Amino acid sequence: MSMLEVQDLEVSYGAIRAVKGISFTVEKGEIVTLIGANGAGKSTTLRTISGLLKPQRGKILYQGQDITELPPHRIVELGINHVPEGRGIFTNLTVWENLMLATYTRKDRSRIQEDFEQVFTIFPRLKERSSQSAGTLSGGEQQMLSVARALMTKGEVMLLDEPSMGLAPVLVDEIFRILREINRQGKTILLVEQNAYRALEIAHRGYVFETGNIVYAGTASELQNNEAVKKAYLGG
Amino acid sequence: MKPTTYTILGLLAFYAVVMVTSAVGLMNDYILRVINLMMINIILGVSLNLINGYTGLFSVGHAGFMIVGGYVAGFMTTLLFGITKDTPYWEALPMFLVAILAAALVSALVGFIIGLPVLRLTDDYLAIVTIGFGEIIRVIFNFITFKKKVGNWELDIGGPRGLLGIPPLSNFTVIFLFTLFTVIFIRNFVFSRHGRACIAIRENEVAAHMMGIPITRYKVLAFVLGSTFAGIGGALLAHFIQLLHPTMGGFMKSVEYLIIVYLGGMGSISGTIVAAAALTGLSELLRPIGELRMVLYGALLVVLMLKRPGGLMGQREFPFLLPERERKIYALQNR
């Protein structure tokens, strides 16, 4: 049984079909990346998995359970955390409040303090700034906060939408190093990236999107060496 | 000594001073009435702030819920229980409390019926629906008549004349305790996990979704809670001014409560308390200049909105209203 299985998914915005019947799987403990150009339907796919959009056709299975028709908050409860594009942090609230909100669905409330400590060891900057309002953080710190929040929710699967967007190369390194670390500790990751080169460096497998369809699938190294993929997405 | 101890002492001192000065005649009835009115406005303002300030909804029908509560309680004490001015206070009080509870429940129910379908939608449909609700309520109370003879009193809901002869059961102690209850309840809600969920919805609805917060449930909850306390406020007001009139549920009355919330600060209980007291006091102070005061009042609002668009307090709170952790953060930020 796959951790996450998408079957024949089709999603439309009105008359425009953004995702045209795609299927893929994510196994437990993997980092799977969805790469492709702007408008290929990668983010739409993530938003559909987390329940923000409803598909016209197809199914989404999480650990064998059909979650296609569930509202977003139920999907979070089941264990899928979405780190949305543009980070989606609460800029007027403090860093601490942002992290606290992420624990909303948790039943084991007594263990939250421990998890704060754990998250603060991974992201020491957030500890320094826990009383600051999140809007005053730098772009990189905001992205860290967004990932930290998903960790506080303690789901099994983390969906990340363009975590490198708008960040300096040094910070991109840092984010990807952390993602790899989180994955080693057992979290399954589905990563959407335009920066295909970097994504394939940390991913186990990948799917290449083109205008709503999956055109290539394979292990990260296969895709890195595939001539067509190289030419189109990896800059030769 | 912890600030909470100061708070309790402060409240006790306020209560004692008002009780003693009014008993020995140092404070006249007029000032006592103004203080009572301030507290009723605090109840209505704070409950509206939960809806508009904390959850980021836009209700323009708060007076509608208030008057529903007022009429329910007024109906019960006058027509159902047959309480008159001559009923001994200790006999009337339990019935009055039952009436307040009923007012709260009916307002909550009305809030639920209106909130549930509307709050499933995003955007500002709530504003349109609540404007309509206020007007519908006004028209309904204009048309309902119901007559009953109680002792020597001929009583009826009154239609356009209003509900008359409501016994003066809201005294300083009752209003004070209910105001305290309202502020403590809403303050505790706002700083709980549920309150944080409401604030998250106000700040960023998509992100709130991603935190696993059931958006519609919390919008309805905040709206219903706000309506409930509006009903309590209405019940107290009705038994304070001893009269209910259909126009009190209309749009202009709702705007008065909106002004209290916006002037005090969206998402600040402290601000609402200050603004409710200040505006109630101000409109009394300016009474000598007659209709001109409305001009002054308007000008004052314009200046305040230009100088302090976030309201008097913004989203800040008096330290004694903050929980331990927030108080520390607050101290850090304002170093």
How would you explain this protein's 3D organization?
The complex is a heterodimer of chains A (236) and B (335). In chain A, a hairpin with a 2-residue loop joins strand 9 and strand 10 (213-219). Chain A contains ten helices and ten strands. Helix content of chain A is 38%, strand content 27%. The mean pLDDT of chain A is 91. Chain A starts with a strand and ends with a helix. Chain B is mainly alpha-helical and 335 residues long. Chain B has a domain at 31-247. Chain B has 13 helices and two strands; from the N terminus they run αααααββαααααααα. Chain B has helices at residues 3-23, 29-54, 62-80, 89-118, 125-143, 172-190, 193-203, 205-210, 215-241, 251-264, 269-285, 292-307, 324-333, and strands at 147-150, 153-156. A two-stranded antiparallel ribbon of chain B has the order 1-2. The radius of gyration of chain B is 20 Å and the shape is globular. The A-B interface holds A 50-52, 71-73, 76-77, 81-84, 88-94, 96-97, 100-102, 104-105, 131-132, 149, 153 and B 193, 196-197, 199-200, 203-204, 206-215, 315, 325, 328-329, 332-333.
Task: State the main characteristics.
heterodimer; A: 236 residues; alpha/beta; six-stranded mixed beta sheet; B: 335 residues; 13 helices; 2 strands
Concise synopsis of the structure shown:
The complex is a heterodimer of chains A (236) and B (335). Chain A is built from 10 helices and 10 strands.
Biggest sheet: strand arrangement of chain B: 1-2
Structural class by SSE content of chain B: mainly alpha
Elements of chain B, N to C (H/E): HHHHHEEHHHHHHHH
Individual helix count of chain B = 13
Largest interface: A-B, 30 and 23 residues
Mean pLDDT metric of chain A:
91
The count of β-strands of chain A is: 10
